[in-house]
Every structure is written in C-alpha cells, then in structure tokens.
Amino acid sequence: xxxxxxxxxxxxxxxxxxxxxxxxxxxxxxxxxxxxxxxxxxxxxxxxxxxxxxxxxxxxxxxx
Length: 64
Fold this sequence. Notes:
- The protein has helices at 2-18, 24-63.
- It is mainly α and 64 residues long.
- The radius of gyration is 20 Å and the shape is rod-shaped.
C-alpha cells in the first residue's frame, strides 16, 4: 500500500505542476480509499490467519 501512497504523491505534484487543480481532491480521496481498504484487508487476513492457527493448535492438542 505504500506504493499507492508514493504514486499518489507523485501524481499530486504532477497535477499541481500541470495545473489540474480540480483533480487534486479526487486524487486525495482515491489515496484515502485505497489506504483504508488495504488496512482493512490486511487486518482481516491477519485475523483469519490467527484463527486458523488457533484451530490447528486446538485440534493437535485434542488428539494428544
């Protein structure tokens, strides 16, 4: 997700240099949305991974 932020900043500076001031709020909104989605997806996947490991450890502990 850091790559999206870097690309967004580069585009922001480019828009400012070229004079496309009307597109800057939309670019900021796109960066916020992609950052938020990335944060949510990362935490959901991490939570699922922890859950799967906990279930596997529970099943292994029950067999012994």
